[in-house]
Design brief:
Blueprint (H helix, E strand, L loop, with lengths): L1 H38 L3 H17 L1 H4 L3 H7 L5 H13 L5 H14 L3 H18 L2 H17 L3 H14 L6
Helix pairs in contact: 1-2, 2-5, 4-5, 5-7, 6-7, 7-8, 7-9, 8-9
């Protein structure tokens, strides 16, 4: 009987150690992606880093909290894909200062000229407004998205914007 208990305890200990190592690995992974976001010369690598930080932030918010400023700075990147990926990541990681993040994404979206950034910026804006719980931010995001929808040059673009509007409005066609 003691042998089974000892075996059970050792198995439990191994599982707990495994979780600890995995958490440490995720923190190291987040640090690596943040370094790539800031220092990589290749835009594709920077965009991938922003995407991966977003994924890690959805797993555990605290993994990406130290790198929120890096993602905000990436909104000014010279490459549109990086700007879009950074905005999308900011929308899903649920940052502390949602109003400030919302304002930064909103400003970037209003001045954006490249389609490669638009989807990520729109989704980041909608997600940040939705997660904030602030009805004023939601209204502001909806107004901006509707303005963009009116200016859409083709049906596919208008439909993409409508899809983002639906995520913000909870599936209701407002």
């Amino acid at each position: 009987m003691k042998c089974y208990r000892l075996l059970g305890l050792s198995s439990l200990l191994m599982v707990l150690v495994g979780f600890s190592v995995q958490a440490e690995t995720k923190e190291e992974e987040a640090k690596k992606w943040a370094t790539d976001l800031v220092k990589a010369k290749d835009a594709k690598t920077r965009a991938k880093a922003a995407e991966e930080l977003g994924k890690l932030g959805t797993i555990k918010r605290t993994l990406t909290t130290p790198y929120t400023k890096d993602l905000v700075n990436a909104l000014k990147d010279s490459d549109a894909r990086v700007r879009g990926a950074a905005a999308n990541a900011l929308g899903v990681i649920d940052p502390d200062d949602k109003k400030t993040i919302f304002d930064k994404i909103h400003e970037t979206l209003k001045n954006e000229k490249e389609n490669a950034a638009m989807q990520g910026l729109m989704q980041g804006l909608a997600d940040t407004a939705r997660l904030s719980g602030d009805e004023n931010l939601k209204k502001q995001a909806l107004m901006t998205l509707r303005e963009l929808q009116k200016k859409a040059t083709d049906k596919a673009e208008a439909k993409r914007i409508q899809a983002v509007i639906l995520t913000l409005s909870g599936g209701k066609k407002n």
